[in-house]
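Quiz preparation item.
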């Protein structure tokens, strides 16, 4: 069965000839029905996945405990978070993974060499939590490390991969975040595949999230290992961290696609370190980049503004679009390039476009058709995804908007099928 799975070619290049030259190859699962827009959205480095566990056709969505709770977690927090995802309607929007990060396990393995839950904070055990989360229609994620210890010095899974994978599967775990601390100096290319093989051997479909911090450029090799791979160091709840990480992740856009995604780390939306405008930009760019949308705040106690951002169905739809092409920075102007245009193609011949003002003052940002891969004569209707309305039905050659400092505007551009005539 494994050999058959490994021989399935998940990625088929269908290259069309366009006036501008080589065009965007199609992504899998679309049966050749989509036509590429422009070769500026190159995905030629997206590889043939060998993990092939049927997961991550679109980027993962859910919640992770670390950004808000760090080690202050317990089974009550996890249960109440699952409840809140359902009661707020976030689960219905696709946030279905409830992921427990570091500090869930006891400080040492048991007498049989098995991982065990910390008895004071998780007295009922992880299987109990998995059953509870599953009863809500959600999925449970767990954390371990491709090292001797986790980052908080709990037992790691290095050299314990088969046993730990079997244990996770027996508990009903659906997701594994696999960190990079205390790695004994062994290259990640050698440490991460054994857990892939161990997870596959369990027969349970477990999402495999590599948290290698981008140190060995995992986009170059992790498409054959996991469902997502961290391309950056840890995010923190600040404008400087978020913008730096967005730029680092942008470099690897051509390597992402259905089945395997670049991961610039979890969302900080709602944790208090940025303004509403900055959080909205954070969420917009993560959605455009096809980054995992993993909520990092306390969903039991969200403000209305936080909920407004996280529940924007039109922005979520960009992230979950089946074409699966990561959007990227396509143009920058102004001081230090702080007036930016980010864009990416969507299914049904559409484009997602973000005008992002990283300057300290309000400014006008213009997107010319040439940077979007459109002919200048193409007529485009433009829908504002935050105002939830069309702002233009017939734009030609370019589009511009005034954007507040540290804010963005996000749109879907839909070209008319017939371009305006030369007259």
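Solution:
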């Amino acid at each position: 069965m494994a050999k058959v799975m490994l021989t399935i070619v998940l990625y088929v290049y269908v290259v069309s000839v366009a006036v501008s030259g080589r065009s965007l190859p199609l992504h899998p699962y679309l049966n050749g029905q989509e036509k590429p827009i422009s070769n500026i959205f190159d995905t030629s480095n997206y590889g043939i996945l060998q993990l092939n566990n049927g997961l991550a056709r679109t980027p993962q969505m859910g919640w992770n405990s670390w950004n808000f709770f760090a080690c202050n977690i317990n089974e009550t927090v996890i249960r109440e978070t699952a409840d809140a995802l359902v009661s707020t309607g976030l689960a219905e929007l696709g946030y279905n993974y409830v992921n427990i990060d570091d500090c869930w396990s006891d400080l040492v393995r048991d007498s049989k060499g098995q991982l065990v839950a910390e008895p004071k904070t998780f007295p009922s055990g992880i299987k109990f939590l998995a059953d509870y989360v599953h009863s809500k229609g959600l999925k449970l994620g767990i954390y371990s490390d491709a090292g001797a210890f986790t980052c908080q010095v709990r037992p790691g899974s290095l050299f314990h991969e088969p046993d730990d994978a079997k244990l996770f599967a027996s508990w009903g775990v659906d997701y594994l975040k696999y960190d990079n601390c205390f790695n004994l100096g062994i290259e990640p290319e050698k440490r991460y595949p054994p857990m892939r093989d161990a997870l596959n051997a369990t027969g349970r479909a477990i999402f495999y999230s590599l948290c290698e911090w981008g140190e060995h450029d995992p986009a170059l090799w992790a498409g054959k290992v996991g469902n997502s791979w961290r391309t950056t160091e840890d995010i923190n709840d600040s404008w400087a961290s978020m913008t730096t990480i967005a730029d680092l992740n942008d470099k690897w856009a051509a390597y992402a696609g259905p089945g395997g995604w670049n991961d610039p780390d979890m969302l900080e939306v709602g944790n208090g370190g940025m303004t509403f405008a900055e959080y909205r930009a954070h969420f917009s760019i993560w959605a455009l980049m096809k980054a995992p949308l993993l909520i990092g705040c306390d969903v039991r106690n969200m403000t209305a503004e936080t909920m407004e951002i996280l529940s924007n169905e039109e922005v979520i739809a960009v992230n979950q679009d089946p074409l699966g092409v990561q959007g990227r920075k396509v143009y920058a102007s102004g001081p230090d390039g702080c007036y930016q245009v980010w864009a990416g193609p969507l299914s049904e011949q559409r484009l997602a476009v973000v005008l992002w003002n990283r300057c300290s003052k309000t400014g006008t940002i213009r997107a010319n058709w040439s940077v979007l891969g459109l002919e200048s004569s193409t007529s485009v209707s433009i829908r504002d995804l935050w105002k939830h309305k069309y702002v233009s039905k017939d734009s030609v050659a370019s589009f511009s908007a005034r954007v507040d400092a540290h804010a963005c505007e996000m749109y879907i551009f839909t070209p008319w099928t017939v371009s305006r005539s030369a007259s």
